[in-house]
Amino acid sequence: MPQTITTGVKALVDDANTRIRTLSIDEAKAMHGRDDVTFVDLRDPREREREGKIPGAFSCTRGMLEFWIDPASPYYKPQFGEDKTFVFFCAGGWRSALAADTAQKMGLKPVAHIDGGFGAWKKTGGPVET
After folding, report:
1. pLDDT in tens, 95-127
2. What is the DSSP letter of 57?
3. Does the pTM exceed 0.85?
4. Which partner from 40, 75, 87, 114 sits 20 to 30 angstroms from 55, CA to CA?
5. What dihedral angle (degrees, nearest 10) is formed by the CA atoms of 113, 116, 118, 120?
């Protein structure tokens, strides 16, 4: 008997988006490079290699996020202990919505994510390094 999925990914993302701050590309560009903001790239290394990256962004694959945020975890990264605004992004804005929601639930704040993700950033001329 096949599995019955009762909540799809679209519903999960839509639900997350009701609780988190979503930045337009213009808002994100205005925040880029500020000392009080950390951009967090959730894409995997192959995506970053293929598409390029936002200069100065901190890379944290989606699968390690919770472990890197929690100071009690053996995988904790001190970047998540800094008093900054964390701006999450992925390729298109779905993983980053889920990640921002999870980070916020864990107590990280303030957090936001970029509407349309890296794809929209690149398409609108945001700075990219290869």
Report:
1. 999 999 999 999 999 999 999 999 999 999 999
2. P
3. yes
4. 75
5. -140
